[in-house]
Write a structure and sequence with these properties.
Blueprint (H helix, E strand, L loop, with lengths): L1 H20 L4 H17 L5 H4 E4 L3 E7 L2 E2 L8 E4 L5 E7 L3 E11 L5 E12 L2 H6 L4 H17 L4 H6 L1 H15 L5 E12 L2 H43 L1 H17 L11 H10 L1
Antiparallel strand pairs: 1-4, 2-3, 2-5, 6-7, 7-8
Helix pairs in contact: 5-7, 8-9
C-alpha cells in the first residue's frame, strides 16, 4: 500500500510538471518575446548566428523561454531556432553511458565483510525530465548505484553472493531503474565485476575445498577397489570352472615376465603339480 501511495504522487507530479511546461508566458512575457524578435530582425543577418543552433543525431535540446520549457518534447536532431535574450537551451546526450561502481565494503547477511565493485549501463530516456527533475542526472545515478549495491548485497549471504551474481545484477537493475524513472533515466544493465574476500577467509575456503577434494578422491578410490574386487571375484569363478583357463593364465603371466629385461626370472611351481602331491598325502 505504501509503494502504491508513493507511486501515485510521482505520476501526479509528472502530469502537473507537463502542464507547467505548456502554461502560457503571460502578457509581460509575450512583450519580451516580441521585443526579442524585433531585436533579431533589426540585427539581421548578424543575429542569425546567434539564433540558429545544431544538435547531433545522438543529442536533444531542451529549450527554455523565460525560464519555461517551450514544448512538451525536446528539439533535434538537426537545426532549430532560438530567440536571443529570452531563450536558452540545454543539450542532452542520448547515448548509453557506462561507469564503474567503486569498491564498496559490504557486510553480508552472514556477517562476512567483502569488497564488491560493479559496472552500470544507462541512458537518458526523457531529456526534459533529466533536465527539469534532477540537477545532475549522471552524478545522481552514480551515487544511487553505490547505495543500491550496498543495500542489495546486505540482504545476501556469502554463498549467494559468489554463486548468484546474475540474480543480484537483475535485482539491482530493477531497483535502479525504478528509482531513476522520474529522472528520465533508463538503466539498461548492471554487472558485478569482482568480489574480494579477506585473506583469512580465502585461506579457510581453500583449505575446505582441498579437504573436500581429498575426501572425494578417497571415495572414488574405494569405489574403484570395490569394483576391481568384484571383477576379480567373477574372474576367479570363471577360471575355477575350467582348469585349462588357469593354465593359460599361468602361461600368459610367464610371457609377460619374460618380455621384461630382468636378470632373474622366478618360475612359480605349477598348480597342477601341487595338486598331485596333495592327493598322494
Amino acid at each position: 500500500m505504501e509503494m502504491e501511495s508513493q507511486g501515485k504522487p510521482q505520476s501526479r507530479s509528472r502530469e502537473h510538471l507537463m502542464e507547467d511546461y505548456s502554461a502560457g508566458l503571460g502578457c509581460f512575457g509575450w512583450v519580451l518575446v516580441i521585443l526579442s524578435g524585433l531585436l533579431m530582425l533589426l540585427t539581421f543577418p548578424i543575429s542569425i548566428f546567434m539564433c540558429v543552433k545544431i544538435v547531433q543525431e545522438y543529442e536533444r535540446a531542451v529549450i527554455f523561454r523565460l525560464g519555461r520549457i517551450t514544448d512538451k518534447k525536446a528539439k533535434g536532431p538537426g537545426i532549430f531556432f532560438v530567440l536571443p535574450c529570452t531563450d536558452s537551451f540545454v543539450k542532452v546526450d542520448m547515448r548509453t553511458v557506462s561507469f564503474d561502481i567503486p569498491p564498496q565494503e559490504i557486510l553480508t547477511k552472514d556477517s562476512v565483510t567483502v569488497s564488491v565493485d560493479g559496472v552500470v549501463y544507462f541512458r537518458v530516456s526523457s531529456p526534459i525530465s533529466s533536465v527539469a527533475n534532477v540537477s545532475d542526472a549522471d552524478c545522481s545515478t552514480r551515487l544511487l548505484a553505490q547505495t543500491t549495491l550496498r543495500n542489495v548485497l546486505g540482504t545476501k549471504n556469502l554463498a549467494e553472493l559468489l554463486s548468484d551474481r546474475e540474480g543480484i545484477s537483475h535485482s539491482m537493475q530493477a531497483s535502479l531503474d525504478e528509482a531513476t524513472d522520474s529522472w528520465g533515466i533508463k538503466v539498461e544493465r548492471v554487472e558485478i565485476k569482482d568480489v574480494k574476500l579477506p585473506q583469512q577467509l580465502q585461506r579457510a575456503m581453500a583449505a575446505e575445498a582441498e579437504a573436500a577434494r581429498e575426501a572425494r578422491a578417497k571415495v572414488i578410490a574405494a569405489e574403484g577397489e570395490m569394483n576391481a574386487s568384484r571383477a576379480l571375484k567373477e574372474a576367479s569363478l570363471v577360471i575355477a570352472e575350467s582348469p585349462s583357463a588357469l593354465q593359460l593364465r599361468y602361461l600368459q603371466t610367464l610371457n609377460t615376465v619374460a618380455a621384461e629385461k630382468n636378470s632373474t626370472i622366478v618360475f612359480p611351481l605349477p598348480i597342477d603339480m601341487m595338486s598331485l602331491f596333495l592327493n598322494r598325502k
